[in-house]
Design goal:
This protein is α+β, with helices and mostly antiparallel strands and 258 residues long. Helices cover 22% and strands 26% of the residues. The protein has a six-stranded mixed β-sheet with strand order 3-4-2-1-14-13. Strands 5-6-7-8-12-9 form a six-stranded mixed β-sheet. Strands 10-11 form a two-stranded antiparallel sheet.
Length: 258
């Protein structure tokens, strides 16, 4: 079995203070994809770099306290790819990939457009260029697992208050169509929705009001996998027992070895 976890930490130092690194060893994960490190390389402690003896790889944003992605790997990868090779995207630390034999595991963090029109424009520009990268990944013959915070809820089932968010970033028609076309045209597979067609699977809750307590959430964290892995999906779960972040870790088990 291969266990892969996706975890938006909303600050690795904050998550550390909330017990993330005490929890992690008990999960027996092979790979953990991190998003929103909100830290520079020099901010990372030894525990943050290599928890439970794992190999840690990071793509920090140039801006302090912002964005950033990482991967923890039980087995040392054959190769690690940091960034997309696109200057403005890579400055924000949004993509990291580890290769193990024929398997690639990617941690990705799409921009949020919720702060205003300018950032929504940045998000659309990212989506347009990332589309071409994903198309190339889909055609290269490798088994691929893309984990991360995509900042898009695909369907009405994927957020509690969908009617009230039809004009809000994260549930705009253009965003929903884009991620839908990844599945329909490029052939990518939504792991959670494949395993649990009718379970909402929320992974993020606003800090406003009582959203977390009332489970008024969004499903914006995904495992998106190549078709070759759709038959390898065993089970998935969302860990909510401890609140490390405004996101909850998403765990998926695969019938696969590396």
């Amino acid at each position: 079995m291969l266990r892969i976890i996706s975890a938006n930490l909303n600050g690795i130092r904050s998550a550390a203070n909330k017990g993330f690194f005490e929890w992690l060893p008990s999960q027996n994960a092979d790979v953990i994809g991190l998003q929103e490190l909100k830290a520079q390389d020099g901010d990372l402690t030894e525990t943050m770099r290599a928890p439970d003896g794992m190999h840690g790889y990071f793509h920090c944003a140039e801006k302090k306290g912002y964005s950033g992605v990482g991967l923890y790997c039980r087995k040392k990868p054959d190769n690690v790819v940091i960034g997309l090779g696109i200057e403005d995207i890579d400055a924000e630390g949004r993509y990291i990939q580890a290769d193990f034999g024929n398997l690639s595991v990617v941690s990705v963090y799409l921009p949020s457009g919720s702060s205003g029109e300018e950032r929504q424009t940045v998000k659309f520009a990212f989506m347009e260029r990332f589309w071409h990268h994903l198309a190339a990944l889909a055609k290269n013959g490798r088994d691929v697992v893309l984990v991360g915070d995509w900042n898009i809820a695909h369907r009405e089932l994927d957020l509690k208050n969908w009617k009230g968010n039809l004009k809000n970033s994260g549930f705009l028609p253009e965003e929903r169509a884009w991620i839908g076309k990844l599945f329909e045209e490029q052939g990518w597979v939504d792991a959670w929705r494949t395993l649990y067609p009718e379970a909402p699977g929320y992974t993020w809750w606003s800090n406003r009001g009582q959203a977390y307590a009332k489970d008024v959430g969004w499903r914006i964290d995904y495992h998106i996998v190549s078709p070759s892995l759709s038959g390898k999906l065993q089970s998935a779960s969302i860990f909510k027992d401890i609140k490390f972040s405004d996101h909850a870790p998403l765990l998926v088990d695969y019938d696969y070895t590396i």
